[in-house]
Amino acid sequence: VTVRIEHDEL
Amino acid sequence: MNIFRLLGDFSHLGAIIILLLKIWKTRSCAGVSGKSVLLYAIVFTCRYLDLFTHFVSLYNSVMKIIYLVSTYFTLFLIYRKFKATYDRNHDTFRIEFLILPSAVLALLWNHEYSVLEILWTFSIYLESVAVLPQLFMVSKTGEAETITSHYLFALGIYRFLYILNWIYRYYTENFIDWISVVAGVVQTVLYCDFFYLYITKVLKGKKLSLPA
After folding, report:
1. Mean pLDDT by 10-residue block, N- to C-terminus, for chain B (212 residues)?
2. Count of domains in chain B?
3. Domain of life of the organism in this record (chain B) (predicted)?
4. Do residues B166 and B9 touch, judged by C-beta distance below 8 A?
5. Measured between CB atoms, which of B60, B111, B178 is closest to A10?
6. Per the domain annotation, does B207 fall within a domain?
7. Residue B209 lies in a domain
8. A5, B174: Cβ pair inside 8 Å?
9. What was the ipTM of the complex prediction?
């Protein structure tokens, strides 16, 4: 599982 | 983008617009918690600072701007334009009890120790409890106007739809953000009691009133 901190949600 | 997220975004937008139109059309903000709206304004401000640093998509930027502008405008209607109708005696929830723990938790549990990231995390935690002043107000007066109930339902169901989106993204993109998931589940759980009343009363044409 990749835990990304790219916030692409609202 | 998937259907759950799109529906979630639009129900969130719907909630904001319902509230704005209700206040605008009736020239009154009776029964509306200005404190909850204030908390949402703080939430959007802290979360959407990335408008200046990080471009996701046109859709994403436009929605962020609409959320921000309409929430600040609602705040203006409650605390300035129609402040004579604001029910401040019933809007007595102490919001520092929500803001301070959210801030402390954001400092303790975050993805990265940077200003923007901590503000983002703070906004996620604060959003999960930001409805409490409004729910507290409903419980204090023992009832809510039907339109206020629709507003609360749209506001609550949005995070539930996001949970479905996170499950979907976990299986299709192998993507998971535990901070959002845990806060989103807490946020949705806080609505359970309200959802029950909404389905059993408001959808059957009755006004939402709490048992004495």
Report:
1. 97 98 97 98 97 94 98 98 97 98 98 94 98 96 94 97 97 94 98 94 90 72
2. 1
3. Eukaryota
4. no
5. B60
6. no
7. no
8. no
9. 0.84
